[in-house]
Amino acid sequence: MLKQAVCNAKEVADIELMEAEVKFYVASMVLEELEKKCRAYDYELLKAYEEKRSSLIKAFSIMNLLPETNPFRVWLEDLLRMSMTFAQSQRDGLYRRRHNSFIRHYVLRQDIEAIADRQNINEKTVRMDIEHVLDKMMVFAFGIDGLKPELDDFAPRPSTARRARRTGQFSSDDGTTVHVESFARRTAARWDEFFKATAEVIPEFNSPVYAGSYSKRHALLDNLFSSYNGLKPDEPARDLVDRLLVLHQECADYSQNERLTRRHQVFKMKYIENVASSVIARTIGVSTGTVYLDVKKTIRDIMLLAFGMKQTEETKED
User: Fold this and answer.
1) At residue 187, what are phi and psi to the nearest 5 degrees?
2) How far apart are CA 99 and CA 132, in angstroms?
3) Which CATH architecture has domain 54-146?
4) Lowest model confidence (mean pLDDT) among 48-52, 211-215, 238-242
5) In the structure, what pLDDT confidence band is assigned to residue 291 with cuts at 50, 70 and 90?
6) What is the distance between the alpha carbons of residues 231 and 209, in angstroms, rounded to a whole number?
7) Which long-range contacts (CB under 8 A, 24 or more apart) does 198-204 make?
8) What is the DSSP secondary-structure string of 169-231?
9) Does the reported pTM lie above 0.85?
10) How high is the pLDDT of residue 210?
11) Looking at the chain, which residues constitute the CATH 1.10.10 domain(s)?
């Protein structure tokens, strides 16, 4: 009816465009709301998964304390047999080695260093072996519910796009940047010292500056912190990590900012105390997503405090 009352062709076209835009807007709002609900459901699934995984880890940790006839111990031993059968069915010896690492850790109660020596691998590989077998144990124990849920949106996106979303999240300012930048000015005289020490431990850290070098250095530091528990007390890498953590602690204490203080606590629990993200989330009272971002933002803070490196707009877009 509206179109019939309009004689000007241009006005008719404008009205059609407006109607199309309104329909698109409404459809977008409906889709966005639906996506939010689905993402919330995905996070609930992930939370349930992490709780099951944490419980399974605790179960294997106390298995030797249970009587041999205890039904719970019998069930755990059945899972170990399933893993052994799977290992024997593989043509290469990779999973067999992983299974043996798991057995030595949880059944023979050997520490990570001893397993590494016995298996002729490094301690980080031992931890990865144990995590890989735990993935299998989750499936053996819970079937399809033992598979880790994906948190992607409806349409699959390239890994680079997911990485860009995450980078954008931990590069955003949550009100702590002003505190970190203020304290970084106080530590500027030590930037060269920290950079040289880091380059000695991680030679790749001294690579020329180029597009994406910030992200690379962020990842290199992430790997360094991840390996903390496998480092010997007298190793230069461990001394460097300790110094960087003290620097961040000083910043948190100086600023008296609650978020920075929590972020430091989460980071220490994750990398120094080797606590699972799901356990950290329950202890601190935040989501596992917040734990992830706190860890990434702490490394971002340390890069500014220790080296004077700020994340540019190019690196934020990944």
Assistant:
1) -105, 5
2) 9
3) Orthogonal Bundle (1.10)
4) 211-215
5) confident
6) 29
7) 198/240, 198/306, 198/307, 200/236, 201/236, 201/237, 201/240
8) HHHS--S-HHHHHHHHHHSGGGHHHHHHHHHHH-GGGGPPP-TTHHHHHHHHHHHHHHTGGGS
9) no
10) 46
11) 54-146
